[in-house]
């Protein structure tokens, strides 16, 4: 059972205008009002100090440093107030608002299921689980959506964090370990669970957007276009014969091999392996980055036991090599789909160049101010489709969790050449690792707020 | 049985640089080599003069004048040679190459099925039916794709036209009338069949792209995102309960009410009515155009028997009214999907404004040189998807045909206030109707080459 004995906590705070990270002592979120001498042990005892009845207070076990944190760090986000950084965290529930009750049966399940002491993962944005968007699974566009790590909603690089709409937002680690063989639950590393807050679901989303798209459906499902998910009645009678296997070889490119790009590549390979197993469909993936150390990381990941030895369906390449590989594989036609995980116009331009006519660009990179780099005529002439935007992490967690537990060799490591996570540090190193991370001199770092 | 007695024919020709339409006597396509005195009556007698064994020569019954013809007419297409205009035509097969034979069983069905005298519709582009793209149903990106009405491939505003890859390209009217109740086949007007060459399939494609998109699937299929067409195995076990009907009310906008826009609106309503009948899902459509006479045409179409009286699910509006209607219907959230049928940046900008977060813009407008009018950040922040490009007409013909025969009150008329076709004229009026059509002073016109 978790306890809060103090009114204050340590947290990583950013100061405007840019590049200014300080570790400070600040009030713990709202339950600060509790007497410091009284441990929070029961649901009832928490309620006195909670800001909103739907809130949970989570004691942070690990918090991530993410490429998106750099937008604020560099002063690109038009924020004028100091804030507690971080939108990736896992932890333990230490306080719950009055909405959490066995009577809350008409609300998202966690309002009746979540208990003090439960281990939880939080998506990087709040989602209520109850609005029109949440009910449709579009948790990233919840009408109550709020990003952690903005002035309005203090982030997770702290010892405690307030989670609004917690019954909709949080995900119990129980529901992940329940997918594992009994007795093996302890093999699930906290550091790998942290990846569920953002980068693994975002990578899986990039892949799933491609595999579910109607323009890719002929290859995935074996029915010629437009015989897809919604088939009007008339079309049923004119359905052409199933595509033979030799017509269904899929080709993809993943552009950008930072941590999200590696997650996108691994998720894509995981899902393609499933499709291959069911239907025999073959696939080829080129993973692209101009940065040699990122390519080496990707290569090391592909050398893990998760992937068959002598895997010849994946090539890691720089930009020029990637163009050659795609031309050779596809006879100049281009890839069925491109996963664009960078978020700038040179990545989009390369994606356009590598995609085939009637192909898809699944773009999960966080783009900035420049106008999209294509003319309408280019988009028309190539029949390109684009899916842009933020991952609905909460809705993606079931699939991301499944990929996580089946690929623990990929997602479980710390500090090895193949690890997505370079190291776990205490807050005293925060300013230094922000600086190194900003300059590309270190990989993904986690904070242990209690170290 | 059709006959060719002449080496020459009359055709509508465009001359560079722009706005120059002449009706001239030109050779009939390749079978011109035949003796003018010998009627073509048998398969064998045709073969001597055909350019390629996969060709058919079609004697034109009706040819359409289309908005896309204006790109060439206005000199916007960088064409320096005179050409025979037109990419929309129906007619009768009068000559077939040697490939057409009962032995051609390993080729697309028409190579063994098509006979002299058969009535056919042609899509506005050639598609072989045999390449990788065609086999996958992507007939608009066939590796042999060629638009009718370019210097390289003389168009259909003539008395005869050469159809390359005819066994893949053409569609037999038989296969349309076979969908009709016996004895009613004669009710299918030639002028309505002409709409199958381009504008009805293109409109239906705009609608189908929206209804098949994974982001629209929660509403159409009742499963929360991302439980769509391709659902990885793990997700099956975590499938959330079906969405209740009250969560599945769909809202669309159609931008641009020219002939294709009317076809898109009617196709969308047709398909939505089918979805409603199956599942009870409700829908609302706003059809938008700044031009009052186009709105009146759309209103007249909606007053036809095809649509229920007092239909309250469709509103025809100018741009400002449309914004108000969408805001009122959706509480400011926006439409699930936008069908963009104009092809310029103000239409795309309006589409972006009217679409909801995590919505889709299905764009079939033929866009020109300007850069796309959105920033990457706008696309990211709204989680927008786009489907751009040309309709795969050949693959869409089964569904477009079905919509056509069920909506003959919409598609069968000529010259009425509700008709998509304003009039049928002879070639002697060609220069005049091009001029009027270019200036927006007449609607869609068909040519009868024999009038
Ligand atoms: Zn992140
Ligand atoms: Zn919500
Ligand atoms: Zn046309
Ligand atoms: Zn083809």
Automatic annotation (TrEMBL), chains A, B:
Keywords: Metal-binding, Zinc. Gene3D superfamilies: Medium-chain alcohol dehydrogenases, catalytic domain, NAD(P)-binding Rossmann-like Domain. It holds the Pfam family ADH_N. The keyword Disulfide bond does not apply. InterPro entries: ADH-like_C (IPR013149), ADH-like_N (IPR013154), GroES-like_sf (IPR011032), NAD(P)-bd_dom_sf (IPR036291). Residues 280-375 form the Alcohol dehydrogenase-like C-terminal domain. Residues 53-167 form the Alcohol dehydrogenase-like N-terminal domain. Its cofactor is Zn(2+). It comes from the Eukaryota. One of its GO terms (molecular function) is metal ion binding. The keyword Repressor does not apply. This is Chaperonin 10-like protein.
């Amino acid at each position: 059972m978790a306890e809060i004995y103090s009114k204050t906590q340590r947290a990583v705070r950013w100061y405007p205008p840019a590049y200014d990270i300080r570790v400070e002592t600040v009030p713990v979120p709202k339950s600060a009002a509790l007497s410091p001498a009284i441990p929070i042990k029961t649901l009832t005892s928490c309620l006195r100090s909670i800001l909103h009845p739907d809130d949970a207070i989570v004691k942070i076990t690990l918090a991530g440093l993410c490429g998106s944190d750099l937008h604020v760090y560099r002063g690109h986000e038009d924020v004028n107030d100091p804030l507690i950084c971080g939108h990736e965290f896992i932890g333990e529930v230490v306080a719950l608002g009055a909405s959490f009750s066995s009577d809350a049966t008409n609300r998202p399940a966690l309002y009746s299921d979540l208990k003090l002491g439960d281990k939880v993962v939080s998506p990087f944005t709040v989602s209520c689980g109850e609005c029109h968007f949440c009910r449709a699974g579009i948790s990233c566009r919840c009408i109550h959506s709020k990003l952690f790590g903005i002035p309005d909603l203090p982030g997770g690089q702290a010892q405690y964090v307030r989670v609004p709409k917690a019954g909709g937002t949080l995900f119990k680690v129980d529901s992940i370990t329940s997918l594992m063989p009994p007795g093996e639950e302890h093999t699930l590393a906290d550091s790998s669970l942290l990846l569920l807050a953002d980068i693994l679901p975002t990578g899986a989303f990039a892949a799933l957007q491609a595999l579910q798209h109607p323009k890719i459906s002929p290859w995935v499902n074996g029915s010629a276009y437009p015989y897809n998910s919604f088939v009007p009645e008339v079309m049923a009678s004119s359905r052409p014969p199933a595509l033979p296997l030799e017509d269904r070889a899929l080709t993809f490119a993943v552009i950008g091999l930072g941590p999200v790009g590696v997650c996108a590549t691994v998720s894509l390979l995981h899902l393609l392996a499933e499709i291959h197993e069911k239907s025999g469909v073959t696939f080829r993936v080129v993973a692209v980055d101009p940065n040699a150390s990122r390519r080496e990381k990707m290569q090391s990941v592909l050398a893990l036991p998760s992937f068959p030895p002598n895997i010849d369906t994946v090539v890691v390449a720089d930009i020029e090599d990637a163009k050659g590989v795609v031309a050779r594989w596809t006879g100049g036609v281009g890839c069925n789909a491109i996963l664009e995980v960078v978020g700038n116009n040179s990545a989009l331009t390369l994606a356009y160049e590598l995609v085939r006519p009637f192909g898809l660009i699944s773009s999960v990179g966080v783009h900035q101010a420049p106008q999209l780099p294509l003319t309408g005529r280019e988009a028309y002439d190539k029949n390109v489709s684009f899916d842009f935007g933020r991952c609905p992490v909460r809705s993606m967690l079931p699939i991301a969790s499944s990929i996580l537990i089946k690929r623990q060799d990929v997602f479980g490591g710390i500090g090895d050449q193949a690890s997505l996570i370079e190291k776990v540090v205490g807050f005293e190193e925060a300013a230094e690792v922000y600086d190194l991370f900003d300059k590309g001199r270190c990989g993904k770092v986690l904070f242990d707020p209690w170290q």
